[in-house]
Design a protein that fits this description.
Strand content: 25-35%
């Protein structure tokens, strides 16, 4: 008589390991403190509009952690804004961060609900009036006045659910709601 050990296969949907997602949700319910994360970035100015941000460590699941490799992002301005165009400008990074977060959030939450997605594409566009940044008009804010987002989603999910899930994005929430920013300066 032989016994076969049944190996449970993880359920993967939309490229998301739904089995592990469920285990993570359950672990957070049992130990809410493991849900506290701190993400970090360091930045070093190079010259003009060019600076380099590095992301390599973060805090999560009650411990310090490292990415498998440091991520280095060059920011600069296009020539029309007096830069050398050695990277996306910072407000373009905001759009890229928003796009990545909303897409990931949609894929994860849809998978968690058992909704299959075949394809997600999106376009992001934002309006900035340089009068705010340059200080030539005190009535104009420095940041985005409006960001427009267009998603195209193919799969087993209705439009209302897509809207609901996209609004769960942490970056969307950060931009849509005021967040306190504390600035500390050390003159060296």
């Amino acid at each position: 008589m032989t016994t076969a050990n049944a190996v449970q296969q993880d359920n993967v949907l939309n490229g998301v390991n739904v089995t592990k997602l469920g285990q993570t949700i359950e672990a957070v319910k049992q130990q809410p403190e493991i849900a506290q994360f701190k993400f970090r970035a360091r930045n070093q100015w190079d010259n003009g509009g060019h600076n380099v941000a590095t992301v390599d460590t973060f805090y999560g699941t009650s411990q310090e952690m490292e990415h498998k490799q440091p991520f280095v992002m060059h920011a600069d301005e296009p020539a029309v804004l007096l830069g050398d165009d050695n990277g996306a400008n910072p407000v373009e990074f905001v759009l890229a961060g928003l796009s990545g977060c909303m897409t990931t959030t949609l894929a994860y939450h849809a998978a968690g609900r058992g909704l299959q997605i075949e394809d997600i594409s999106s376009e992001f566009e934002g309006d900035i009036d340089l009068q705010g940044l340059l200080g030539t008009n005190p009535k104009v804010r420095s940041g985005y006045q409006e960001i427009r987002v267009k998603f195209k989603v193919k799969g087993d999910i209705d439009e209302q659910t897509i809207h609901e899930l996209l609004r769960k994005s942490p970056v969307y929430d950060t931009l849509a709601n005021p967040v306190k920013i504390r600035i500390e300066v050390e003159k060296v």
